[in-house]
Amino acid sequence: MTFPLIASAIKVFVVFNLIMVGVALLTLLERRVCAWMQDRLGPNRVGPQGLLQPAADGLKNFLKEETSPAMADKALFTLAPIISFVPALLTFGVIPFAAPLPTKWGLVPMVVADLPVGFLYILAISSLGVYGIVLAGWASNNKYALLGGLRASAQMISYEIALGMSTVAVILLAGNVTLSQVIAQQQQAHVWFIIPLSVAFVVFFISAFAETNRLPFDLPEAEGELIAGYHTEYSAMKFSMFYIAEYSNMVTASALMATLFFGGWDIPFTTWDSTGDPRVLKTLLTLLVFGAKTFVFLFTYIWVRWTLPRFRYDQLMALGWKVLLPLSLVYITLVAVAIWFIRVRLGWEYGTGMALVLGGLNLVLLIALVYWLDRGRIVSGSVQEEAA
Amino acid sequence: MAIGVKVMKRPTQQTSYLRATLKGMALTFSHLLRPKVTMQYPEEKSSKDWTLSSRWRGTHRMLTDEQGRAKCVACGLCPQICPANCIKLVPGEDEEGNRYPLIYEIDEFRCIFCGYCQEVCPEEAIHVGVHYENSEYSRDRFVYDLERLSAQTHPVSTLWDPSDPKGE
What is the CATH number of the domain that holds B81? Predict the structure, then answer.
């Protein structure tokens, strides 16, 4: 009885620290990749290749003055960074990050909490983070901060729906909301969900950018127009908390994309990792693969940030409500019909065959989508057609 | 769209957000791999693309003769021409009737680095230098006296030559 408790405590400790270190390195990576994309070198002075830069930044933030606006709501002002910080870390708890680890006392699943409702938990907790932003905007008693908070809530509502809808397809196909089961299914079929559900992935990918408030969806911050949006009034560690929250959200979203659509810790083109006895080497290798998949998405986040300009507010709303929402609704209908047809009429179980058939359907839909989006000029704003 | 905005009819490839996005992503990625232009300053002070110009006008230097004395004859032309009024010169005369500066100070904070002092100097004594690393711990260290001006070793500016405007 005590073993699972101790194992959980150790896992919590390790995962927490891994995320914190990961977030720290991510801030460095962001600055360096940004610099490289602008033909600069970026911070490379503190430690080898600037690796200690995050430590220096953290130290600076600890030593800075905590300012508190005179007219701010003190309690909420203090609470807001915590509210945005905690859910960002909590969400990672249900994501399996490696094959189970065999120990002397039994098998340890490599997930902090293998909740049966795993996916619903993520949807529930990840949307709590926006409360931190809205409260920060409100409590600061600053018009720019309030505007940032308002935008954050509007954006979150718009894109949370599309995000949820796109994952319904995954749940339909997996028939389960437990993330470890979702991964197991992808391993058994030897086809990741990206093939049978590629349109869902596109919707999820775009919504995830909006959910994490990253460019081109960083309207709550919007340096140019809202100064710094909801964290205008924050300084020192409180500001740092928002920063860490943003990056942990990125890590979680990336890990989620890897889990739902790219087989989680599954090593591609092998069955060695999911069959046979659990081994320590297996755990380490799968952890590495999971890390690599997550890293690819994290890099994409940074890459997109330093490429695209920010959306205008009406473009943001148009994309959310006029494109992603109807798209995901139609898509769910089609996928549900297809899955029902294959399962019930043809009597197939989920496997490579079914995945490929669905993959073909998705390819057709994807081509249609790209063709329509390309010509529909949904978010092209100033070049709208003349009225007839 | 606001009323009265004239909207051009453009072909799809010019208005497609999707294509523009992909193009932009490809561009930023190509930049990721290109050679960087940053110079690692304290270690690397000039590169093949960039060196400090020989016409650079930095902090001053007083040239000296073979005996190590300043070439200055205290004629008073440089404080006269100085538009920032930053040169303080008190002339003196020795037993043989040679003029020399008793006090020669340049306030480098006042100086606007126009280089007129170098241009006007008949003895080619005072020069502006090709030099830019001037940090000090206090403000009064920026008033350079004669001894300090003579002790500088950095190269002197060639200034702009009207007969050779491109520096060839």
Answer: 3.30.70.3270
- Exposed, middle or buried by CB within 10 Å (0-12, 13-18, 19+), for A40? middle
Does residue B126 belong to any structural domain of this protein? Answer: yes
Binding-face residues of B in 30-69 toward A, CB within 8 A:
31-32, 34-38, 40
Whether A304 sits inside 8 A of B25 (CB atoms) is: yes
- CB of B2 within 8 Å of a chain A CB? The answer is no
Q: How far apart are CA A159 and CA A144, in angstroms?
A: 22
A142-173: pLDDT as tens digits: 888 888 888 888 888 888 888 888 888 888 88
B106 contacts B144 by C-beta, under 8 angstroms: yes
Q: Supply the range of the domain harboring residue B142.
A: 58-151
Which ipTM did the prediction report? Answer: 0.74
Number of domains in chain B: 1
- Sorted by where each begins, the domain ranges of chain A are 69-378
Its pTM surpasses 0.95: no
Per-residue pLDDT reduced to its tens digit, B101-118: 999 999 999 999 998 999
> B16: closest CA among A382, A377, A99, A229?
A377
Nearest-angstrom CA–CA distance, A136 and A149: 7
Cβ within 8 Å, pair A307-B21: yes
